[in-house]
Design brief:
- The structure is a single chain.
- The protein has 249 residues and is an alpha/beta fold.
- Helix content is 49%, strand content 12%.
Length: 249
């Protein structure tokens, strides 16, 4: 699902010709123009800079890095909110304790489960979207944020390196480097010229990942593989032997 994954696939002994790249896609709904003020009022973020994350609340997602970076980011902007959007998967209690210990409870919002439309609305009010995961094969939420014209900061995961180019779609940083996360967040909020460039690039890139485009790629792979079976009697016999109940039309 991302370019960099073929490295470990080859290490596992999979031949290059048996590896195909078919990333996930998003739908046209992700580009819907949202009523930002409605969500700013509901979640009390009016007048604040908003740094956001969407996904499961799990330790490997690296969310503590965003909390640790918050005090220094606040020194530059004063009113800053972090939005953690979606459900607890066993780490929320520990994360809330970290928030409490840093005395930033009023600046961190845990939304819990939201609808797809509300998720889009929450993404739309973010000034910066952060995906700070230790491991991420793709990260479809980055595309969802791009479609809502939000700059991205991601760790250097397979998905991050595939989707994000520094100063083109946002920034990459090394997992655990809090100071770099702080600096790049501040840069993306303050540098309006860079923000506008990234917003434009992200919108164009997100459109390249529409579901229709990705499904056509997958369909072509299936068709090509069926043609190989049709034209190779040995393969055909293997398929029929392994799957005696198949009916191929």
């Amino acid at each position: 699902i991302s370019e960099n994954q073929d490295t470990w696939m080859k290490e596992w002994g999979i031949k290059k010709e048996n590896i195909a790249l078919v990333p996930p896609g998003i739908t046209n709904e992700n580009f819907e123009k949202m009523d930002k003020k409605k969500y700013q009022e509901k979640f009390k973020t009016l007048g604040h800079k908003v740094i956001g994350y969407v996904g499961r609340i799990q330790e490997y997602k690296g969310l503590s890095q965003m909390v640790d970076a918050l005090p220094n980011i606040k020194k530059n902007f004063g009113k800053v909110k972090i939005l953690f959007v979606w459900l607890d998967s066993g780490y929320e209690k520990e994360l809330r304790n970290r928030v409490r210990n840093l005395n930033v409870e009023k600046d961190v919002i845990f939304t819990g489960e939201v609808s797809e439309k509300e998720k889009r609305g929450l993404i739309s009010i973010m000034d910066v979207f952060v995906l700070p995961s230790k491991i991420e094969g793709f990260g479809i939420v980055m595309l969802e944020a791009m479609a809502q014209k939000v700059p991205i900061i991601s760790t250097k995961t397979d998905g991050g390196k595939f989707l994000i180019k520094n100063k083109e779609n946002g920034f990459l940083y090394s997992f655990g480097d809090i100071k770099d996360l702080e600096n790049k967040t501040i840069k993306l909020i303050m540098d309006k010229k860079l923000r506008n460039k990234i917003i434009k690039n992200n919108l164009n890139k997100a459109r390249d990942f529409l579901c229709d485009n990705q499904s056509h790629k997958l369909e072509k792979i299936y068709v090509d593989e069926m043609k190989k079976i049709e034209n190779d009697k040995t393969l055909w016999d293997e398929v029929l032997f392994a799957n005696p109940n198949w009916i191929v039309i």
